[in-house]
Automatic annotation (TrEMBL):
Position of the signal peptide: 1-19
Protein name, UniProt field: Transthyretin-like family protein
Annotated source species: Mesorhabditis belari
InterPro entries: Transthyretin-like, Transthyretin-like_sf
UniProt-listed Pfam families: TTR-52
Length: 139
């Protein structure tokens, strides 16, 4: 009986430890009215239903509009990744940022510490995508 309990606890421990890391990498280019848009804040999150989202990575677009972010999470279930872009493209009064959020397909999430299938969002024209106002991400 005690041996069975030890085996059971060992199996549980192994399953917890082996839940493992999942990694996502997203890259692309941002433009505003056809011009490269540098300085946009980009964040990758694991979207959680019942708790706060977990931030996986954060960065900014380069002067030429390009960005490349890789983030890693340790979840027992599949990561539910979304990318948020904060910018001021086409904004006349710079009090707040515009925010655009969209999901990253599951097929671009890799098991392990390195992303093996990066997601290329191509070129995103910020003046043309649906957005909302965000006054909390000011830096």
């Amino acid at each position: 009986m005690l041996r069975s309990l030890h085996v059971f606890l060992f199996v549980i421990l192994i399953s917890i430890v082996s839940a493992g890391y999942q990694t996502v990498r997203v890259y692309g280019k941002l433009t505003c009215k056809g011009q490269p848009y540098g300085g946009a804040k980009i964040k990758l999150y694991d979207h959680d239903t019942f708790t706060l989202d977990d931030k996986l990575a954060e960065g900014r677009s380069n002067a030429d509009g390009t960005f490349d972010l890789e983030g890693m999470g340790n979840e027992r279930t599949r990561l539910n990744v979304k990318m948020n872009i904060y910018h001021r493209c086409d904004k006349t009064i710079p009090l707040c940022y515009y925010k655009h959020s969209f999901p990253i397909p599951y097929s671009y999430i890799s098991a392990g510490p390195r992303a093996t299938n990066p997601y290329n969002v191509q070129t995103l024209e910020l003046s043309m995508i649906e957005k909302e106002r965000d006054c909390f991400n000011k830096k």
